[in-house]
TrEMBL record:
Keywords: Cobalt, Metal-binding. It comes from the Bacteria. This is B12-binding domain-containing protein. GO terms for cellular component: cytosol. Signal peptide: none annotated. The keyword Metal-binding applies. The keyword Metal-binding applies. Coiled coil: none annotated. GO terms for biological process: homocysteine metabolic process; tetrahydrofolate metabolic process. InterPro entries: Cbl-bd_cap, Cobalamin-bd, Cobalamin-bd_sf, Met_Synthase/Corrinoid, Meth_synthase_dom. It comes from Pontibacillus halophilus JSM 076056 = DSM 19796.
Length: 217
């Protein structure tokens, strides 16, 4: 995945205004797709790789994450969102237990909302038993799971297996860096839809069919 080296460096420097100025000067007006899929995601993947190879410290990685979060919030407040439908399909998102990465969940939530969905983002590192309470109350049509590192696979498999037993049969979607780098369709035995990037998610959402139980007024 290609990345903008200057953007990655600015994120690591913790330069909030520098990142915003660079994006505006270099790329001009941006839509969410271009910002998330073409710029921020590749830059943060590069930051993660540098951390894994001990080129940067965990403090550096946390700083870059915080700046990326700031940029996401800034653009969320300044970009238009599609008008809300009267009857909205529901999605619920969370990171599996032990998964600390949350920026991807914020990007995914924005993609859903842009297409008129009602979204509950429960955030990162959520034990399955706690997520299930919200899931059974909310009854979403789609449940999105995020996992970045391969050693989360056992927890991911457990979560997918449990979610597949829910009586209203929601669609289970898995994304994150692990989905981008590994053959999760094979590892999860085809029990979940694997989203490798936001392009795939947006295309999939255009054709999804949901039951009438999984909508809200």
């Amino acid at each position: 995945m290609n990345y903008d080296e200057r953007l990655a460096e600015l994120l690591l420097l913790g330069d909030e205004s520098g990142v915003l100025d660079y994006l505006k000067d270099e790329y001009g007006p941006l839509d969410r797709h271009s910002l998330y899929n073409k710029l921020l995601t590749p830059a943060m993947y590069e930051v993660g790789k540098r951390w894994e190879s001990n080129q940067i410290s965990v403090a550096d990685e946390h700083l870059a994450t915080a700046i990326c979060d700031f940029v996401l919030s800034y653009y969320d407040n300044h970009l238009e969102t599609n008008p809300l439908a009267i009857e909205r399909k529901k999605a619920l998102l969370f990171g599996i237990e032990g998964e600390q990465h949350y920026l991807g969940l914020k990007m995914v939530a924005s993609v859903f909302r842009d297409q008129g969905w009602s979204v509950r983002n429960l955030g990162a590192d959520l034990p399955l038993e706690h997520a299930l309470h919200q899931i059974k109350t909310y009854k979403p049509a789609v449940i999105g799971l995020s996992a970045a590192l391969s050693y989360r696979l056992p927890k991911l498999k457990e979560a997918v297996a449990v979610l597949r037993t829910l009586e209203w049969q929601p669609q289970v979607v898995v994304g994150g860096r692990m989905a981008h780098e590994h053959d999760l369709k094979r590892l999860l035995h085809g029990q979940a839809y694997i989203v490798k990037d936001l392009d795939e998610l947006a295309e999939w959402l255009k054709g999804i069919q949901v039951s009438s139980d999984a909508t809200s007024l």
